[in-house]
Amino acid sequence: MLTKDLVIIGGGSAGLAAAIGAYDNGVRDILVIEKGPFLGGILNQCIHNGFGLTEFKEELTGPEFASRFIKQAEERGIECLLNSVVTNVTCDKVVTFVNKGGTTKIKAKAIVMAAGCYERSPGAISLPGDRPSGVINAGQAQLYLNEHGLMCGKRVFILGSGDIGLIMARRLTLEGAKVLGVAELCAWSNGLNRNMVQCLDDYNIPLYLSHTVTNVIGKSRLEKIVISKVDENNVPIEGTEKEFEVDTLILSVGLIPNNILMVKAGAEIARNNGCLVNDKLETSIPGIYSCGNVLHVHDLVDNVVEEAREAGKNAAKYILGNNEINLSSINTKAGEGIGYVVPARIVIGDDEKDATLKFRVRKPSKDVYILFEQNGKVLKKMFKPAIIPSEMEITKLSKELLVKGDELVIRMVKKEAK
Amino acid sequence: MEERDLICIVCPRGCHLHVDKDLNVTGNFCPRGAVYGKQEVTNPTRVVTSTVRIEGANLAMCPVKTKDPIPKGKIFEVMSSINSVKIVAPVHIGDVIIKDVAGTGVDVVSTRDMEKI
Ligand SMILES: Cc1cc2nc3c(=O)[nH]c(=O)nc-3n(C[C@H](O)[C@H](O)[C@H](O)COP(=O)(O)OP(=O)(O)OC[C@H]3O[C@@H](n4cnc5c(N)ncnc54)[C@H](O)[C@@H]3O)c2cc1C
Ligand code: SF4
User: Fold this and answer.
1) Right CATH for A1-119+254-323 from 3.40.50.1950, 3.60.110.10, 3.50.50.60, 3.10.20.320
2) pLDDT, greater one: B55 or A390
């Protein structure tokens, strides 16, 4: 069987940054396996700007950002295999992939999982009504338009106010389509503020908050949709229906880590479908790391590459035998008001001074404290004048503060009025 | 000038800005927000990103952007100019695709390396 020190699954921004991180920490025998015909992943179809402000201190488009990482990988001579799909990963780190040359198995010393995410389907959200053509996922519509020059329709409605939906509202408007509105189930928008302004307000596209699609009508092609207001339990309110004659309904209703390979490998899986990792981004299978959108969905690629380089660095330590073994770890827990926390575990007693914690709140809140507590004792307290679910929070916690055994709870509390 | 409340769009932080009658900006976390706030009430501009048809590459479309922000009111004129050109591979990041688009003084440039196949 072929062997490699490090195999990286996925050649998107996470996979490339992980390869670079591992290389820069001493590993040379690296293979990146990418199923598509290009490196760079999803960024290639994200032709809008807004990437790279943290990483490169300038505003780049998706393809420009991707090309910088492709160049960095090329400069290091990192081997990348295109048009090759990984079909299996085992807990003893045998990776199987398929391409024109057939099926190949590689035994790796370490693996970085960086396979990105996929879009939630109409079925997954129990979209009611017919299934004519013209109901399409936002990322799919973006790919058709931006890489192949194919418009999905002329009169469009968008369900879901995530960033991809907002970006597509503007993009389709610029290409001559009429976007009649965006409906969002939550009482707040799930996109970044800047996208609300630049993509909807600039083009007078209405946003219907606390609304959802309650009927989809059309025989072969979509003819119309009905939206309704929802109550606080997300149940449609009768008598609030509005009809829109559209030929296209775009769904931007969430992304899910594309983590099936790790599920099959028997790794411990978190509620979001990503792997449970420790603060070294190592999964429950020693020597297999996870980063980028396959771990948890990121809104900013700058955060993806930072996380991925860290995963690559830690994989390098593992390969070169520099990591401490048999250390204990504590669990983290998303408490009151917090949606999720990555990592799920923090290793105690290693040579890292800080643990990086990433989390999202459940709903937009003002004047709150974020508390980091172990056994009721506050280890860290952050004041936030405003905090929203669509922006991931990242903070460092000194590991010296942590004691063995007890769970670390992160929770949000309202600042008390004086 | 009228007072206005804006959301800064220069970076993803999205600060809530207040611009008063004398163009003083508050609420910005960093200096770029003050520049944006003033600009947005006097002469709002945007970077336009789109695609142009390309021949001889392995994809039908090449992504492009205006090298600098252009006046907001010119967006659709810039778009129709972008949609009227066709290019031939190879192109590289930064190559000028349209000079001085729609009389804005700004060039449209390629944002992806696309080799000839
Ligand atoms: C549509 C969209 C719009 C976005 N807009 C912005 C934005 O405006 N600003 C911003 O900063 N960020 C944005 N993001 C976020 C950012 O682009 C992503 O977070 C980041 O690029 C994800 O990188 P990744 O490497 O984790 O995933 P991806 O880029 O998806 O890469 C995963 C790669 O793995 C490959 N792969 C998957 N399965 C296999 C397999 N079995 N075998 C081999 N290869 C496999 C895929 O082909 C893909 O190339 C957006 C994300 C999406 C989805
Ligand atoms: S003021 Fe500065 S930090 Fe705030 S959104 Fe604008 S650019 Fe970003």
Assistant:
1) 3.50.50.60
2) B55
Query: For residue B82, is it within any domain?
Result: yes
pLDDT at position B106, please? 98
Which residues lie closer than 8 Å to A114 by C-beta, 6 or more apart?
Answer: A8, A9, A10, A12, A14, A15, A18, A290, A291, A292, A294, A308, A311
Q: Which helix (H) or strand (E) holds A264?
A: helix A260-265
User: Do B27 and B70 share a domain, yes or no?
Assistant: no
Nearest-by-CA chain B residue for A46:
B63
Cα–Cα distance for residue pair A215/A240, rounded to 1 Å: 13
CB contact under 8 A, A391 and B12: yes
- The reported pTM is 0.93
Half-sphere exposure of A374 (CA within 13 A, CB side): 17
Q: What is the mean pLDDT of chain A?
A: 95
State the nearest Cα–Cα gap between B22 and chain A, in angstroms. 23
Counting one residue from chain A and one from chain B, the pairs whose CB atoms sit within 8 A come to 79
pLDDT digits (tens, 9 = 90+) for A370-386: 999 999 999 999 998 88
Whether residues B73 and B27 fall in one domain:
no
Beta-bridge partners for A107: A3, A94
Residue of A nearest to B9 (CA): A194
Domain of B106 in residue numbering reads as 49-110
Query: Of B5, B61, B95, which to mutate for an interface test with A (greatest number of A Cβ within 10 Å)?
Result: B61
Cα of first residue to Cα of last residue in chain A, in angstroms, is 68
Rounded-to-integer distance, Cα A270 and Cα A340, Å: 10
pLDDT beyond 80 at A325: no
Clarify whether residues B104 and B79 are in a common domain: yes
Q: ipTM of the assembly? A: 0.90
> Where do the structural domains in chain A lie, given as residue ranges?
1-119+254-323, 121-253, 327-418
Does the C-beta of B28 come closer than 6 Å to ligand 2? Answer: yes
pLDDT tens-digit map of A335-350: 999 999 999 999 998 8
A121-253 has which CATH code?
A: 3.50.50.60
A32-53 pLDDT tens trace: 999 999 999 999 999 999 899 8
Residue identified by tokens 């390979």 is A261
The bound ligand whose nearest atom lies closest to the alpha carbon of A291 is 1
